[in-house]
Amino acid sequence: MYCKNCGNILASNANFCHVCGAKVEIDDIFDAPKTEEKNEEVEAFKEELKDYYNQEEPKKEEPKPEPGFYQDFYGYKSSPEEQQAYRDKAMKKRAFIPGLIGTIGCGFLLMDSIMTYLVNIFYYNQLYNSGVDSSQTYLENCYNALTSSIVTLALATILGGVLGTIGLVTASKVNNKKARIFGAIAVALACIALALAVLVFVYRVEVGNHIWEN
Fold it and tell me: N or C: which end of the chain has fewer CB within 10 A?
């Protein structure tokens, strides 16, 4: 038997058409129509079914990668431009650190150089001239002052010269005002500490040679 609504072949015990869903009534059952006389609605319905099952699923939009560290952490692939922008931003934030370290270190070195200079120029000389210290003791103090000057020269060069210069160069690249200030201060303090250390060194060498010759 056939569905009166769409002409589809029905099972003998069917209550509903499995194509169009129409309820099957005994009075509605009729002979099969000729092939060339198929209902246009059936063809249209079949086309709709075909279009429905053949349509493509909508593509899921990939999450937009976030710049920098988050891309690497979550497995995103970032573009070279985004990576460079993230590196520049991170460098700008940390650009002041070398200059700050150099400034703090050279600040302590400067205080040590001032104390060494004052103690050697005034205190040790006074003890020696008043006869409290012997020539041997004075020479030992000269040796200690020379050693301290050499250490100060090395540390001031590293902390102020190297770190301060790194801070200035980095500041010029990323245009960080704070980094530029700290770098300049570190270099300036290093120069002062170096100058005092050199003065103590030269003075002690001259005095030590004079006492040793006498």
Answer: C
